[in-house]
Write a structure and sequence with these properties.
Structural class: alpha/beta
Number of strands: 7
Order of helices and strands: EHEHEHEHEHEHHE
């Protein structure tokens, strides 16, 4: 049976592993044409080859979300290859955790550049296309940390609160034919848990992530919001393991 996902052109950042890879495989299996961006092109190429081997449609481009022109090139690839872009999933993110007193200023800057500027660069790249088409869908990945701050997560949580605020402003400004969704995952199995350089915090994170659930859970949520009728805008989903308390 045909769904609202089939034949949609979906651009995904951070697509070389974890949530992005799971989304790409899930949506391609349901007939979407996926356009994958990340810095690790060899991993992207392997994912594209596997999707194509199963009769899916996929292309990839090495992409640095901190550089606006790089993200624009990814969206341009979608348009030149498939004629349009229907969904922009701003998924790329990093999670280096540390107490503010550690003064890991470069990590703060990197987190802001990827988690906030990366989303803004995705919006800047896709919005003109969506406005020209008079249709489109932004899906921005926040976190439960965008709802509740924990010790050592101040900067990371700040970036994820920002994603929610930017997304809500975007929704109100563009509205009508352009949909906006925020997905806030809890403990999901991905490479995100490996981003902490503080040894004590890293050990704690790895222990907490023993309760993580599969990235497929997020891919299923993404498929759900995309497949809704065009006049239905699912604005936010918070998704955690059942056992997660925070």
């Amino acid at each position: 049976m045909k769904t609202n996902i089939e034949n949609k052109v979906v651009v995904i950042t951070g697509a070389s592993s974890g949530l992005g890879e799971a989304m790409a495989r899930k949506l391609a299996s349901q007939g979407a044409k996926v356009v994958l961006g990340a810095r690790r092109i060899e991993k992207l190429d392997a994912i594209v080859a596997e999707i194509q081997s199963e009769n899916g449609q996929a292309v990839a481009l090495a992409t640095d979300v901190t550089i606006g022109e790089s993200v624009k090139a990814l969206v341009d690839l979608a348009v030149t290859t498939f004629g349009r872009a229907d969904v922009m999933i701003n998924n790329a993110g990093i999670m280096p955790l540390s107490p503010l007193s550690a003064l890991k200023v470069q990590e703060w800057n990197d987190t802001i550049d990827v988690n906030i500027k990366g989303v803004l660069n995705g919006i800047a790249a896709a919005l003109p296309v969506f406005e020209r088409q008079e249709t489109g869908h932004f899906i921005n990945i926040s976190s439960v940390a965008g709802h509740k701050v924990s010790p050592a997560s101040s900067v990371y949580a700040g970036t994820k609160f920002a994603v929610r605020a930017i997304s809500e402003g975007l929704r109100m400004e563009v509205g009508r034919n352009i949909r906006t969704t925020v997905i806030s995952p809890g403990l999901i199995d991905s490479e995100l848990k490996h981003g902490t350089s503080d040894a004590t915090i890293s050990q704690f994170v790895n222990e907490v992530y023993n309760d993580a659930i599969s990235a497929t859970s997020i891919a299923n949520a993404v498929a759900y919001v995309i497949e809704q009728p065009n006049d239905v805008d699912v604005n936010e989903i918070v998704l955690r393991p059942t056992v997660q308390e925070f």
